[in-house]
Amino acid sequence: MELKKKHQFILIGGWAVFLYTKALKSKDIDLVMEYEELEKIKNEFVVSKNERLKKYEAKKQEVEIDIYVPFYSNPGIPAEEIKKFTSQVEGFVVGQKEVLAILKQKAFLERQGSIKGRKDLADLISLFRLPDFHWEKYWDLVRDYRLEDWQAAVAKFIKQTASAEELNLNVHQMARLKKEILPKIEKGNG
């Protein structure tokens, strides 16, 4: 990725999930970066400010980047907080799996019922089924950022999900997965 060579950022969103899960690729790129890096990006991309969603959007041909900046953006956890929860994956600085799950929860709840919402739910399921997903860390984040309502809503949607063809999970495989992960998802909510 050309961006990695020129800029410092934290990769979040679908591409970060893909680096962990190898499940579904994403079309757009989601980044957290400092304002200084944002200024540098403006030399290469057409950048606009999205006041409603509190982010910046950069475009160059088919490449679309959503940029979240400290003390302005909150993609689920305030952008300035995300840097406390990063890992190195395949040479990228990425949000930790548990943070990505929280960010995907917000995206899913905002876009449920749409194609992008379905992708968000699939990303969440693919994170939750990782053997090294750290459930205690996830629940600490849910409690610290007071996101229990989001979590409960997502648990409800996962319960209602019969299959996830995009993850090659048929009805029987999804039922087994739900039996395994739903108690973990609901554990901290009581």
Written account of the structure:
It is built from 9 helices and 7 strands; from the N terminus they run αβαβαβββαββααααα. The chain has helices at about 1-5, 15-20, 35-40, 80, 95-110, 115-130, 135-145, 150-160, 170-185; strands at about 10, 30, 45-50, 55-60, 65-70, 85-90, 90-95. About 30% of the residues are buried. α5 packs antiparallel against α6. It is globular, with a radius of gyration of 16 Å. With about 190 residues, the chain is an alpha+beta fold. The termini are far apart. It has one domain (about 1-185): Beta Polymerase, domain 2 (2-Layer Sandwich).
In short:
This protein has 190 residues and is α+β, with helices and mostly antiparallel strands. The chain is built from nine helices and seven strands, in the order αβαβαβββαββααααα.
Core attributes:
alpha+beta, Beta Polymerase, domain 2, five-stranded mixed sheet, 7 strands, globular
List the helices and strands and how they pair.
Blueprint lengths: L1 H5 L3 E3 H9 L7 E4 L2 H7 L4 E5 L4 E6 L2 E6 L10 H4 L3 E4 L2 E4 L1 H15 L3 H14 L6 H10 L3 H13 L10 H17 L3
Parallel strand pairs: 2-5
Antiparallel strand pairs: 1-2, 3-4, 4-5, 6-7
Helix pairs in contact: 2-5, 2-6, 5-6, 5-7, 5-8, 8-9
Our count of helices gives 9
Rg, alpha carbons? 16 Å
Low-confidence spans = none
Which structural category do the helix and sheet elements fall into? alpha+beta
Main sheet: strand order: 1-2-5-4-3
Just name the CATH architecture.
2-Layer Sandwich
Major β-sheet annotation: 5 strands, mixed
Here the CATH topology equals: Beta Polymerase, domain 2
The dominant shape is: globular
- The N- and C-terminal alpha carbons lie at a distance of 43 Å
Q: How many strands?
A: 7
Percent strand:
15-25%
> What is the helix/strand order?
HEHEHEEEHEEHHHHH
Specify the CATH class.
Alpha Beta
Q: Any idea how many domains?
A: 1
